[in-house]
Amino acid sequence: MSLNQAIPPNLNAAGERKLNMQPLILDGKTLSRTIEGELAQKVALIKEKTGDVPALATILVGDNPASVTYVRMKGNACARVGLRSIKVEMPENTTTAQLLEKINQLNNQPQVCGILLQHPVPRQIDEQACFNAIALEKDVDGVNTASFGGFTMGLNSFVSATPKGIMTLLERYNVEIKGKEAVVIGRSAILGKPAAMLLLNADATVTICHSKTVGLPEIVKRADIVVAAVGRPKFVQADWIKPGAVLVDAGYNAGNIGDIDLENAAPLSSAYTPVPGGVGPMTIATLMQQTVLSAMRKAGLE
């Protein structure tokens, strides 16, 4: 099936899932490679027009093993797309002032079209102050508070990569969003809140749930689209799911386990994101997309 074709008709006229119909797997790994191929063509066009190779700069403070892995994966994606990867490594005892100085230097480097500060940073650093120091036109992870405000107001600001990747996944698999009821479980500034705003901008009716929500299972049972981003393994249970719902599992816990009990919930759905291979690859693909978009804007191609 093409990634732009409609979802197979696995619901009946009443909106109920047909018997013996397999749910659609929203394969982020496959889609991310398709997107990378599209981006490689755009990077080649940028190189042809400008003679320059646009760069994504990643800043890693300390040596958190997971962060080291994520930075390496982003560097590998840059290579596949044709971007230059600039890896800035700073010691664990880096101060806020030192990090701000480095961000300012990257802001002033013309070939750097995207800046990513790997989260989390050591506790002594004012993370949000450093996020807000990233130039808006280079904020390809959408972490600057002005970027968040911009896209909520319908401006062309960059968006947090994971929620933007979720929306791309839904759109490219032609999952209907307009008029649907969506429930987002989780209210973090980089995932839950922007995911809710993006769904709202796509004309869904959105409910945001969190740790203080009363009657969570009953709320989730109403949802046509469920986005789980709570960081708790198998938190969302199968008996919470309305038959035919679309399940987006943005969680990744030890043992390759997501936030939804997919083993039991996925068969009830019309479509779902696997863990791993669903949302995760789309986060990196979105970082590449937004870096290339920044480079195209700079080159006058967008």
Structure summary:
This protein is of the alpha/beta class and 302 residues long.
Question: Helices and strands in order, then pairings?
Answer:
Blueprint: E1 24-25, H1 28-50, E2 55-61, H2 65-81, E3 84-90, H3 96-107, E4 112-117, H4 127-133, H5 145-152, H6 161-172, E5 181-185, H7 192-201, E6 205-209, H8 216-220, E7 225-228, E8 246-249, H9 262-265, E9 271-272, H10 279-299
Parallel strand pairs: 1-9, 2-3, 2-4, 5-6, 5-7, 7-8, 8-9
Walkthrough of the structure:
The protein is an alpha/beta fold and 302 residues long. It has helices spanning 28-50, 65-81, 96-107, 127-133, 145-152, 161-172, 192-201, 216-220, 262-265, 279-299; strands at 24-25, 55-61, 84-90, 112-117, 181-185, 205-209, 225-228, 246-249, 271-272. The strands form 2 sheets. It has a 6-stranded parallel β-sheet. Strand 5, helix 7 (192-201) and strand 6 (205-209) form a beta-alpha-beta unit. Helix 3 runs parallel beside helix 4 (127-133), helix 6 packs parallel to helix 7 and helix 6 (161-172) crosses helix 10 (279-299). The model is unreliable at 5-11 (pLDDT under 50).
